[in-house]
Amino acid sequence: MASAPWDYIAKLVCIGDSGCGKSSLTIRLCEGRFASHHDVTIGVEFGSRIVPVGPPHSTTGSASSPPLRSLDGRGDGDDADDTRKEGGSGKPGKGLPPPPLAHQQDKAKPPPQKHMKLSLWDTAGQETYKSVTRSYFRGASGALLVFDLTRKSTFQHATDWLNDLRQIAEPDIVVVLVGNKSDLASPNTTETPPPPTTTDTTGTKPAAADEPGTNKREVTRQEAEDWARRNGVLEYVETSAKSGENVEMAFLRVAERIFQNIQAGRYDLNDRRSGVKGHNAAVGMGGANRPVRLTGDEGKNAGGGCC
């Protein structure tokens, strides 16, 4: 049997109010396209994407993933410095070839790249399905808490979503706050709200509020970053599912922190509640790499008629 192209699998949930673009973010990440029209999610929809985690990818200086710090606190080359010393002189032996370790370091190959399969659960944001949506939080190791930069009410509801998530999921779940629809929001806005809509001379046609360049931002970056710090959220990222800006980065931030937690031994990879599985454990459970989507009728059946 051929080995799977991933080393770990992690369950991620996308949560937030309806209409914030959670499904569009998932489609952008998994399929690389933007869906201008999308049916309201009923219950949950699934997607998956395999991403690199850890070195060498995380140490290349890419903006999409932070570098990992050495777990033992020692910098590169510490051992090599020790082997170069002879009799405390700090110089190699006269006429001797370079020590093997130093020689190997010069030509050392990077460690094998690890990969993580992100199992994405795109949940419904409507209040009607909230009792069902909450049940999908169990066993999640990461979450994207999404709000709409052009609707402040969706940002104000973020606290409720986060509280629900932490009550049901594991307490150390990795959360990134995502302000979506940055293509409609100017980055250099202030706290001053946008001017009111005006009409033309006939009084019947509203001003072109949807013209390109119009700033619809209702939540500033500073507001969102302050909220993230107060609530112990890993990071705040502004994305555009339409242009693709920062979409991959938002998911990679979550994946990289989950990988760091794995390296630190914070997950039991054999416990389904951790939201993370190693390859061997997932194969033993019959895990399959198959995206699934619930249709409207199936979503109602999944609810069991409870709401």
UniProtKB/TrEMBL annotation:
<feature type="region of interest" description="Disordered">
    <location>
        <begin position="183"/>
        <end position="225"/>
    </location>
</feature>
<feature type="region of interest" description="Disordered">
    <location>
        <begin position="280"/>
        <end position="307"/>
    </location>
</feature>
<feature type="compositionally biased region" description="Basic and acidic residues">
    <location>
        <begin position="213"/>
        <end position="225"/>
    </location>
</feature>
<comment type="similarity">
    <text>Belongs to the small GTPase superfamily. Rab family.</text>
</comment>
<dbReference type="GO" id="GO:0003924">
    <property type="term" value="F:GTPase activity"/>
</dbReference>
<dbReference type="InterPro" id="IPR027417">
    <property type="entry name" value="P-loop_NTPase"/>
</dbReference>
<dbReference type="Pfam" id="PF00071">
    <property type="entry name" value="Ras"/>
</dbReference>
<feature type="region of interest" description="Disordered">
    <location>
        <begin position="53"/>
        <end position="115"/>
    </location>
</feature>
<dbReference type="InterPro" id="IPR005225">
    <property type="entry name" value="Small_GTP-bd"/>
</dbReference>
<dbReference type="InterPro" id="IPR001806">
    <property type="entry name" value="Small_GTPase"/>
</dbReference>
<keyword id="KW-0378">Hydrolase</keyword>
<dbReference type="GO" id="GO:0005525">
    <property type="term" value="F:GTP binding"/>
</dbReference>
<protein>
    <submittedName>
        <fullName>P-loop containing nucleoside triphosphate hydrolase protein</fullName>
    </submittedName>
</protein>
<feature type="compositionally biased region" description="Basic and acidic residues">
    <location>
        <begin position="71"/>
        <end position="88"/>
    </location>
</feature>
<feature type="compositionally biased region" description="Polar residues">
    <location>
        <begin position="57"/>
        <end position="67"/>
    </location>
</feature>
<dbReference type="InterPro" id="IPR050209">
    <property type="entry name" value="Rab_GTPases_membrane_traffic"/>
</dbReference>
